[in-house]
Amino acid sequence: MKIFSKALLDWYHINKRDLPWRKSSDPYRIWISEIMLQQTGVETVIPYYLRFIKQFPTIEDLAKSELQEVLSFWQGLGYYSRAKNLYQCSQLIKTEYMGVFPSSYQQIRQLPGIGDYTSASLCAIAFDQKISVIDGNVLRILSRLFEMEEDISNNQNKKIFLEKLNSLLPESNNRDFAQALMELGALICRPTNPVCYECPVKKYCKARENGTIINFPVKGLRKAKIIQQFSYIVINYKDYIFLKKRKSTGLLADMWELVLISSNEDQVISHSLRKLFGKSINSINKYPKIKHVFTHIIWELNIFKKEVKSFTELCYTDKTPRNHVYKTAKHIVCRIKRIRKGEYYLIPIAELSDYPLPAIIQKILLKTSKGHDE
């Protein structure tokens, strides 16, 4: 449908948003934007993108950095595995492709953290290849254009949607066409309250013609989110705070967190706090519960804060024969006496910005710094 693609491209060239990653044809910069835009809105991404590109303007700059630095510049965007994969990709591209971003779908698809959509998107936008790029926006547009009854959440239907999109691809300028479809979904063919009267391709839309827009796209039922309940304690010692680095796999991998009590039951919490602080438990501040929502998980958290006057009150000392405390060039690393697992770092409060802290930990620190205890 050449007439369809022409109408869409004409609209896009006049109405496209002025986004920083659209000012470059550098595959590296387009790749950074695509990864950031996964699970994150455009307006949120823009300042992070500009700051990230300023710090790491090339693949080589990213590859020679440290992971903790990359995580720090990603801090606040969430889904931190994306940042780890970016870092790993940059090193792989530097060693295996001499620092030149690969241009074939197969090569790009094999890079860490890059799936079908991102591979196709890079081929189209960075290299202007004729390839179908399907994201949630495009699925919604196709569903309405063709009144497609297929469930967009079912991967088995992907081939059907690809065939429909292939029929719309222009012979040239697939770079702009791919972005135009996404722009149409973001600005016009929105999930709710679509602006059909402004749509440049409305005369081709079956759902608009038949008044069935509200019925599309068809989606399966989402699984209920898993609820996890536990408690965090903000523990200060002089001008330091106790933090622990999370595991290198799983949710919030390699990020930093507070002292953890893996329960939200009052009796368990009370028992744990008494074990940790003994008679000084009465000087613990308790804060209102916090809820934090991830894609598939909800955290429900009790929050406490405690000022520790003596290091030996809480931690083993360097005289302890089991070597539960030691010093590095940058940190004092210690084991808390009554917590079995994990090493905690004494981090200067003034240097917290140097550490990749998840949004929930930043929120807790901000909340407890105001002193609004119950």
Quick description:
The protein has helices at residues 2-15, 27-36, 42-55, 59-63, 67-74, 81-96, 105-109, 116-125, 136-145, 158-166, 174-187, 206-210, 266-277, 311-314, 359-369, and strands at 226-237, 240-245, 256-257, 259-261, 285-293, 297-308, 325-327, 332-334, 344-348. By secondary structure, it is α+β, with helices and mostly antiparallel strands.
Write a structural description:
This protein is of the alpha+beta class. The protein contains 15 helices and nine strands. The chain has helices spanning 2-15, 27-36, 42-55, 59-63, 67-74, 81-96, 105-109, 116-125, 136-145, 158-166, 174-187, 206-210, 266-277, 311-314, 359-369, and strands spanning 226-237, 240-245, 256-257, 259-261, 285-293, 297-308, 325-327, 332-334, 344-348. Strands 1, 2, 3, 4, 5, 6, 7, 8 and 9 form a nine-stranded mixed beta sheet that branches. The longest helix is centred in the first third of the chain and has 16 residues, at 81-96. The model has no long low-confidence stretch (mean pLDDT 91).
Q: What's the Cα radius of gyration?
A: 25 Å
Overall outline: elongated
Structural class: alpha+beta
**What oligomeric assembly is this protein in?**
single chain
The run of helices and strands is HHHHHHHHHHHHEEEEHEEHEEEH
Q: Unreliable segments (pLDDT under 50, ≥5 consecutive)?
A: none
Distance between the termini: 64 Å
Fraction of residues in β-strands: 5-15%
- Approximate helicity band: 25-40%
Largest sheet: 9 strands, mixed
- What's the rounded overall pLDDT mean? 91
Output the number of helix runs.
Answer: 15
Number of strands: 9
